[in-house]
Amino acid sequence: MTELIFDHSHPGRSNGAQMLPPAPEPDDLPEALRRSERPRWPEVSELQAVRHYTRLSQLNFSIDTHVYPLGSCTMKHNPRACNALAMLPGFLERHPLAPPEAGQGYLACMYDLQNILAEVTGMRGVSLAPAAGAQGEFAGVSMIRAYHDARGDTERSEILVPDAAHGTNPASASMCGYKARELPTDEEGDVDLDALRDAVGPQTAGIMLTNPSTVGVFERNIEEMATIVHEAGGLLYYDGANLNAILGKVRPGDMGFDVIHLNLHKTFSTPHGGGGPGAGPVGVRENLLPYLPTPMVAEEDGRYVWRTEADCPDTIGRMTAFAGNAGVLLRAYVYIRMLGRRGMERVAEYATLNANYLMTRLREAGFEVAFPKRRASHEFIVTLKREHDQYGISAMDFAKRMLDYGFHAPTMYFPLLVPECLLIEPTETEAKEDLDRLVEVFTTIREEAENNPELLRTAPHTLPLRRLDEVRAARDLHLRWSPEDSEPATGTEG
Amino acid sequence: MTELIFDHSHPGRSNGAQMLPPAPEPDDLPEALRRSERPRWPEVSELQAVRHYTRLSQLNFSIDTHVYPLGSCTMKHNPRACNALAMLPGFLERHPLAPPEAGQGYLACMYDLQNILAEVTGMRGVSLAPAAGAQGEFAGVSMIRAYHDARGDTERSEILVPDAAHGTNPASASMCGYKARELPTDEEGDVDLDALRDAVGPQTAGIMLTNPSTVGVFERNIEEMATIVHEAGGLLYYDGANLNAILGKVRPGDMGFDVIHLNLHKTFSTPHGGGGPGAGPVGVRENLLPYLPTPMVAEEDGRYVWRTEADCPDTIGRMTAFAGNAGVLLRAYVYIRMLGRRGMERVAEYATLNANYLMTRLREAGFEVAFPKRRASHEFIVTLKREHDQYGISAMDFAKRMLDYGFHAPTMYFPLLVPECLLIEPTETEAKEDLDRLVEVFTTIREEAENNPELLRTAPHTLPLRRLDEVRAARDLHLRWSPEDSEPATGTEG
Amino acid sequence: MPFIPHTETDVRSMLDAIGVEDIDGLFDEIAGGLRAGELEGVPEGMPEMAVNRLMERRAAQEGRPLCFLGAGAYPHHIPQAIWQLTTRGEFYSAYTPYQAEASQGTLQVTYEFQSMMAELTGMEVSNASLYDGGSALAEAILMAVRGNRKAKSKRVIVPRAVHPHYRDATRTIVRNQGIELVEADFDRSTGTTPLEQLDAALGDEAVAAVVIPQPNFFGRLEDVDALTDRAHECGAQVIAVANPTALALLSPPGQWGAKGVDIVVGEGQPLGIPLSAGGPYVGFLCTRKNLARQMPGRVVGRTVDAEGNTGYVMTLRAREQDIRRSKATSNICTNQGLMVTAATLYMSIMGPEGFERVARHCHANARALRDELCAIDGVSAAFDGPFFHEFVLRIDGRPVTDVLGDLAGEDILGGLALEPYYDDLGDAMLVCATELHGEDERRAFAEALARAVA
Amino acid sequence: MPFIPHTETDVRSMLDAIGVEDIDGLFDEIAGGLRAGELEGVPEGMPEMAVNRLMERRAAQEGRPLCFLGAGAYPHHIPQAIWQLTTRGEFYSAYTPYQAEASQGTLQVTYEFQSMMAELTGMEVSNASLYDGGSALAEAILMAVRGNRKAKSKRVIVPRAVHPHYRDATRTIVRNQGIELVEADFDRSTGTTPLEQLDAALGDEAVAAVVIPQPNFFGRLEDVDALTDRAHECGAQVIAVANPTALALLSPPGQWGAKGVDIVVGEGQPLGIPLSAGGPYVGFLCTRKNLARQMPGRVVGRTVDAEGNTGYVMTLRAREQDIRRSKATSNICTNQGLMVTAATLYMSIMGPEGFERVARHCHANARALRDELCAIDGVSAAFDGPFFHEFVLRIDGRPVTDVLGDLAGEDILGGLALEPYYDDLGDAMLVCATELHGEDERRAFAEALARAVA
Ligand SMILES: Cc1ncc(COP(=O)(O)O)c(C=O)c1O
Ligand SMILES: Cc1ncc(COP(=O)(O)O)c(C=O)c1O
To answer: How far is CA B2 from CA B54, B58, B404, C446, D81, in A?
Structure first.
């Protein structure tokens, strides 16, 4: 059990090296507007802070320390050069409102990045503004709406979404004022085409698809689906979260998509940072160009300039105050320049190889995969329904036990349509021997499930904490420290 | 048990981002001089290397993660600013042979540092050349020799060294061609004055002293000792390893020392790095100025220039190929500029406060300190002789058990003259509450020694490894990996 | 092969296990016609060494100008410890803490962040971050409209003195949900939002929420107590948009007016995050405990493990998109985790007193700078009254953009021209000073400005 | 108080526990007359922010010239991962692994370093580092004299083609132990050490050791097999001084001549360590297993714990100063641990093939550069024969120092003037190229040099 930084705090302790000389009282500020008490932030020395956060960091599983096959999240190696080069002082100190003349270097990178992303996705234009995948989706659906609106086609009220879609898809549709209508998945993992035909109509604004889909297979009817939706007057949205599986192999634009977003923190290996920041650039076909979110970078007479609302009267507007997660974009750019054209295809090739190999080995080991007749994309689903029924253990129990063996668990219970499922994405940066180890661990845990299911139900056992009580956390809300928490005498339950 | 990086190696695996394009065969190099086989270095991916070394790092205790009261080593906080600012590209890319005109910034720092170190030690001149404490000692004793030689006083053959001295002292004396003659310590921790009087004579080249001494007390007779040695024609050498205790309070120059070295990796908080790099600048009085090791920095007409052998014909010469551990010197400089004049004195004050408080508390808790009538300097000695005799545990057992409680152990069995000793140096950067915890741990471990001494003898218990067999390591020498070690089938003992 | 560990032997044995001839065989479910050709627009890969050089060159093009630009992104001193720790692999390369037991580092840092932000804003709870200050305002508005069932209104008052980019982002984000954003004008002489303007905007209709900036976009301090109370009287929720550094000196929104505000949002960039061309930054959102279930985004809560030890987990998950899907409080998923780590370290390392000193220096330097610049002939302050660390200047005789151009020529970013944002304000510029702008920096600016306006 | 955590309450209660009035009371054993006054020569302390600024300014003064200086310190590409990992607190702020169980990180890294260095040099064992290449040569000489009991000699042959600074440092370090350093001259047309010169230096007396550089200071390759064999014939031990990058292409010293050398030392800086004005670098020393007990410095060995698990400890400690005191093999204690970590990471991350490519590029670029520069009128190569990545040029008509001055004016460090080191060599300069010096860099140099000699 680790102490909070507040537990190291003592009144009057300070960090002298950060203490500026005393400054005059701000006595020109009206008394009524002034703060009377300092925030009760921790008062600690630099060493205490360094030690506390260094030790805290060690409590995390991370790509840098563990195999992390978290499906849908593409937890691949984050090359250290990306971090170092995005943090060069020239970039870090650039003010977002600095005029282009003050420095062209950053804009040059962004301009290149827009073009490269357009090329690998087969789209006409790209905006780097959205701060993450969900914001990319929002921007994309907003553009669909703007497109229909501009044509006076204002009765469209629905966005179609496969039942297996990521939660951000329906949530983004809602935020754009659309109703999300679900489409069933057929037993081979494709979207049910008949259901799609039934669902489309004049109310259809568009469809959001992930391809390869969130069940880990390539949507084979994609061209037909595109025709159906387009014929109904709807547009196709591509959720790029799974682009890693087909990077450089198949371009969303060539599949018929009108608008896409990419997750640079997946496919382009920018760090996940314990939950962001990400970056969710959007790309569009010709017909949606006017609506791209601002700002963007353009080239004019050999110089790079910003394009803002003033230049793009039909834009859906800004997504954040400035130009998106610039530092993340720079990291992706560095990654792309190291990989290059051929390196991108290799990403898809080896991500797919790893997933199919692992799927094959796990099947051989007797695990049930959700879509056994299909190739895996860069990920695949194992269902533990049988183990659940036979041994009374859940996918969660299995996942927690994996932690004991030094593997981060796969994504659990997503997509919802497969019972007791684990969505497994090894990524291209893991070595074969580690996949082999993973198979061994799966096998061992299943033996444990058979012989001693309690071991799984009470896992993890080797980490600093045992299974955490999530129900209690939500029932008995403690969302912040308060001073009583640090007083040894009183309340363990403050 | 952690695998070696070699165990992750597979033939033909490579780290593509570091792979330059193929270059022509070096066919101009005579065949006989060319290498026929590549070194069997590991062939791993960047991720494998990052993961391996990240995980390895986590196996270390360090100041950033643990209280580290390792006596004589001054394991205090290494401010992160020192690291960051010494690694600014302008400094990192400076070539050691770049002419002064190419950049004055680095030289300016070194010039300042020379002067500041001279001021805090009370010496006339300082050279930053020695790479660590031991090299500083060597340089110092070499200067003593050069001084005597220059006066034609060539019969002096001995350097006096207290029996409690650090091993580097006699070893450095030997390297300078002197015999090291030991002086006993009296029961209050001072050097035995009568023995000193007996020992000095025409054969005495000088004396090496650490003050406060390695037994953790201030040598009270220092002025008298200086007189005795000086009257015999010898010079006084100050081992600055313990300067932390008196920084800004007492200056070696004022105590009568002729030549000193400092350990910047102790007193000036440059990192210990798992065993270096350090820096061991030397300072001298007027009479030894001509012998200082090269290079040094001088100011001429407002510009900084190097002084090398050409300018200093009597120098003892270079200590290393270039100008010492420049990056370490920069870190010390940053530290000094943050601390400033008053901050330096505070170092001594709070280091001494912490040591005396901890000593008091441990005595109250029933531990025996080696010199109970004395003030502690920045460190002090606990002897576990009683516990050894009563419970059959050793200082080593006690130390290993401390690791289980998350404290790095104090220095064990040094100085040798105190049986079953622990030399404890908390440093000024540890907080009172951590010293209090340390007292609790000491008390708990003594209870364990009483009730269950086996627990100590077999400690540590909570670390990834149990007690390591040092005898076997020395007997059965394995100083390097060889390919058989990584083949699963064969020899666990290659 | 950059970042791919496979040897030829590996590939061969993996393909054999799968039972395909070659890697291409793994793509056999994809219709041939869909397969992409050569990606001609993507350059060839380069070794890290060459990319280093490219990026070094591009970064060098940015130079390192003396920056008096603020307007929502502020140059501050960032203690060196912060990013050395934040970029540790265990923070940097972990993801959202779905497996709580294997993510206590991230979870506890986030819990500490929530605690410190709640303390700073004077609110009961905080979420775990939003993308940035601008999108956080939009989320706060959606939350207020959702939460304020009583008002049955979708009208929200947003003063013109709120950052224009925040208003843009908000428009983008709330536009399709039937929310009406009503402007409240500012006073031309004070640069603040007077009660009368709020009243004018409120009108007679019901209002869901009122936004109050502090300091406002012009750097000026609003009369937050009066505005808050008036909004509450009208049944509106109050959303504060606050600069965290300013809150070291200014009354926390939780204490504005009689009851305190309902939601506080803002940009966390000043808390140890570099300017970095506009991001990644970190939006924060704090609120009352009873509104916690309306919050967008992640929240971390304290709980216990099977043995009763304290630990941390993501909680109130039922609000979120992965569970509630189209009914979620927001679509946000990935947020700004690493920036939360940096900000938490900043707050810990500065401490309450160190932070207050920073704020005082910002304020003192800004006052001094305004006086020094206004001592130049032809330069005057546009607004009267107290400000935090930004102020608006007018320049006689030369267009602001020309003056800024001249300054840029001397490697000084002198401020932001306001005309593009407020065409009715006339020619003016917004200038900022922080703790970085001591005497030397201010003198350099004043001398260059004197030359530029001469 | 920078870096001191004590509150006033802490201090009070600590003083009470000790039983003194104030902190000054703790210094009461020190005679009053010894107490220092105000340290006037030490500047006042500054907050980190101000020190940042000072150091940024000083670093900026260094500029970032295009560097063709080598001469013992070489600009190379350093993969970004290396220092991001090396400066992790757990490596950076630990000390010598005295408590092995709590230091397996450092110990295992060191063991890996020893293994890789032994592989690179073709020797059986390596130590855990010495200060740098120069002092390592001195230690090797002391070790050879100690180890070569047969020879009963303290004469050591050191060719003049060994780095002059290494020879200086060696002189400093061995001077007081009765060791005689005998020079062997180089051939004026080839720049190498011919057998005849070795023979001349050997003379008829016994010799303890012969030093052989590869490449030598002039970048030239020595005939190492012949030199090694001749030295062995005379009963001398052979000490190689080798550049690690060159060893990617060149025969490892363990294979020189019939029996291989006895000791290899050198400078590890090219293995991922920045130039950094000359340090910290890392000296390496490899030898035969039967000489291991003669080695100076730390050594790490493999062992097992109480349960039979593999682990690592410092071993052969009885050689060292803390145990053997005045009889130790060396006085070295703190060595260059963190640089060992960096070098180990470099070797792991480059891998054998990546490293070989680096060496090939160094060599190819150096050849190309020599040809390009020698195509300039008045510029010629001083020596014939193969070289690795350095070569010596002569310039007609202008003193080398003037030419170098002109180049420096164009932000190019063109090389090292040799006259100060070899007054009998005449006016010449030593130039280096590495993998960093591709066409663009070489062209810039050639153009500037053409201007300078014109
Ligand atoms: C399939 C899919 N779509 C969308 C998203 C949302 O992306 P983000 O988390 O960047 O908002 C995710 C990521 O978690 C995803 O897996
Ligand atoms: C008292 C004393 N003298 C000298 C030294 C030697 O210093 P270094 O390890 O830097 O060579 C030490 C350090 O270990 C020491 O404690």
So the answer is: 12, 11, 19, 61, 21
Which token pair is C104?
Answer: 């206590």
Measured between CA atoms, how close is C262 to chain B, in angstroms?
39
Ligand 2 in contact with B210 (CB < 6 A)? yes
CA-nearest residue to C4 within chain B is: B45
- Among residues C359, C335, C355, C338, which one has the least CA distance to residue C346? C355
Chain C residues whose beta carbon lies within 8 Å of the beta carbon of residue B15: 2
Mean pLDDT of B32-60: 98
Spell out the residues 6+ positions from residue C67 whose beta carbon is closer than 8 angstroms to its own: A93, A95, A98, C75, C275, C413
Beta-bridge partner residues of B300: B303
Q: How, if at all, do strands A158-162 and D66-67 pair?
A: unpaired
Contacts of D90 in chain B (CB under 8 A): 57-60, 62, 64-65
Nearest Cα neighbor of C206 from C172, C155, C139 is C155
pLDDT at C395 over 70: yes
Distance from Cα B265 to the centre of ligand 2, integer Å: 10
Nearest-ligand number for the alpha carbon of B136: 2
Q: Which helix (H) or strand (E) holds B148?
A: helix B133-150
CB A244 near ligand 1, within 6 Å: no
Nearest CA to ligand 1 atom 10: A133
C336 in contact with A, Cβ within 8 Å: yes
Q: Is B89 exposed, middle or buried (0-12, 13-18, 19+ CB in 10 A)?
A: middle
What are the φ and ψ backbone dihedral angles of C325, each rounded to 5 degrees?
50, -120
**Helices within B151-187 (DSSP H only):** 168-175
The ipTM of this complex is: 0.97
CA distance D453 to chain C (A): 29
Q: Nearest to residue D173, comparing CAs of B138, B159, B146?
A: B138
Cα gap D287→D130, rounded to integer Å: 14
CA–CA separation, B58 and B319 (whole Å): 35
Atom 15 in ligand 1: residue holding the nearest Cα: A241
| pLDDT per residue as tens digits for the range B144-190 | 999 999 999 999 999 999 999 999 999 999 999 999 999 999 999 99
Q: Tell me the pairing of strands A204-210 and A235-240.
A: parallel
Please tell me if the CB atom of residue A239 comes closer than 6 angstroms to any atom of ligand 1. Answer: yes
C-alpha to C-alpha distance for A367 and B409, rounded to whole angstroms: 49
Residues of A in contact with D9 (CB under 8 A): 10-12
What pLDDT was estimated at residue A1?
A: 53
pLDDT at B489 over 50: no
Answer for the pair C121, C287: CB distance below 8 angstroms, yes or no: no
Q: What digits encode the pLDDT tens for the residues C61-95?
A: 999 999 999 999 999 999 999 999 999 999 999 99
Contact B41 D280 (CB under 8 A): no
Give D 180-219 residues with CB within 8 A of chain B.
none
Q: How far apart are CA D64 and CA B6, in angstroms?
A: 37
The CA angle B363-B368-B371, to the nearest 5 degrees, is: 95
Cβ atoms A337, C54 nearer than 8 A: yes
CB-CB under 8 Å, D436 with C52: no
User: Which pair of tokens denotes residue B385?
Assistant: 């002789």
Residue (of B335, B336, B330, B295) closest to B105 by Cα position = B330
* D1 contact residues in A (CB cutoff 8 A): 14, 16
Give D124's DSSP letter.
S
Tokens for A212? 């390869």
- Is C353 within 8 Å of chain B by CB? no
Residues A323/C131, Cβ–Cβ less than 8 Å: no
Give the integer Cα–Cα distance in Å for D292 and D286. 9
Q: Round to whole Å and give the CA distance between C345 and C341.
A: 6
Please report where in the chains the tokens 């080598």 appear, as a residue.
D70
Place of tokens 């391809």: A211
